[in-house]
Amino acid sequence: MTIRLPDSGGRLRLYEPRRDPLAVAVGTPFSSRTVFSAAHVVADPYADVSPDSPAAVDWDATLAFRRHLWSHGLGVAEAMDTAQRGMGLDWAGAAELIRRSSAEAKAVGGRIACGVGTDQLTTGSPEEIRKAYEEQLAVVEEAGAQAILMASRALAATASGPEDYLELYGRLLRQVSDPVILHWLGPMFDPALEGYWGSSDLDAATEVFLEVVAAHPDKVDGVKISLLDEQREIDLRRRLPQDVRCYTGDDFHYPELIAGDDQGFSHALLGVFDPLGPLAAQAVRVLDTGDVRGFRELLDPTVELSRHLFEAPTRFYKTGVVFLAWLAGHQEHFAMVGGRQSARSLPHFATAYELADGLGLFPDPDLAEKRMKNLLSLYGVSQ
Length: 383
What we know:
- The protein is α/β, with parallel strands linked by helices.
- The protein has 14 helices and 10 strands.
- It has an 8-stranded parallel barrel with strand order 3-4-5-6-7-8-9-10.
- The longest helix has 18 residues, at 91-108.
């Protein structure tokens, strides 16, 4: 059996789907690395909403996907940009997601960390931004989850310089109950974060970021770097205090960053580990045995798919992530909050399908093929 897929030039070509899915067993958490998958949310396709309406979430399917990730030993990074924070999921929806997922994590013994931001605001005074962070921090701490201090669009829009970042983050870190993860999300993921840490010069911004960490090492579990710059992450992680982890958020270079070198390695907090979850978990278990080569042999072939999903404009990678979840049978539809399923082209979807299928990511290849053909038919591609 073959399937006709469009290429980037608008031509149709034949592809023969793989018939043997990757065999991956569920397992326990890892011993050599701390690994989080940033997880997507599943929209309620029957809700009568517009792109400007509050998100309508299918809670059963959303929580079922988190149980899938936990079953493979992965931690869940909740209510992050992968869950469409600021791109369809507002703070009210994120707060409910945090509460529900944290309760589910307790029930199954899964690890969870949740995003804390300021998306109640578009702009605001330093005091208003601090209070917005504190409101969200309280929700996460009351839910019993670890906090991830995300970058703030409001702070990026109003800060006059590095001193505003040092002041605000210092006040937040002094009051947190448990060590947090600091999240540096680059403008390729969110253009509104250009100039974060008080400068568009990444060298200058790095110095401010490291100053925040150095002033509060006991309150920082780790830092999550999402700049898609391998060498910058390596240089930064070598300068972190001894007990502060570096969590890679680099969806272009994660195999080599996680594998590390003779001077250290990165842990992981990655959006691409949403579709790659079982395969990524298997690779990290191989790494747990000290087999770096075996780890790379499993994970290196996934980079082509990841680079495709995260191609510019990178912030729309969520569409590909949800698309693959649908093909893999983790949800019954391809709909997204905010209507974001329209954010990528049919050739983009076709390539994502082919690459994921080649990796054996679909537990039921026949189902994935059927759903891909259904999507193609909506675009007028007959088989």
